[in-house]
Specification:
The protein starts with a strand and ends with a strand. It has 98 residues and is an alpha+beta fold.
């Protein structure tokens, strides 16, 4: 089985940056507490633009990703996260080759 990964580029409204970071920090903590098949879940902030972030995640397999997408805290936290964005999220999916 191949790991399932995504990289999301998120550009945040400047006045919502702190809220966005708090929501993402809560989401990251819950992922690591409740999703043992989430191998990586990281939020990165651009050094050049403090309103640009990348979320990088890797799940053991498609089933682990599907579980992530349906877990209750995901449904609670993602809508307000998306509401903080200044533009549509750019999302790409990848598979591990090693």
């Amino acid at each position: 089985m191949s790991a399932k990964s995504f990289i999301a580029k998120l550009v945040v409204k400047p006045d919502r940056r702190d809220e966005f970071i708090a929501l993402q920090t809560e989401l990251k903590g819950l992922v690591f507490q409740h999703e043992p098949d989430a191998q990586v879940y990281e939020l990165l902030q651009s050094e050049d633009d403090p309103d640009t972030f990348y979320c990088v995640a890797t799940f053991k397999d498609q089933a682990a990703f599907d579980h992530h997408m349906g877990i209750d805290f995901h449904d609670r936290l993602v809508p307000p996260i998306l509401d903080c964005l200044a533009s549509d999220m750019e999302l790409g999916f990848y598979r591990s080759l090693s």
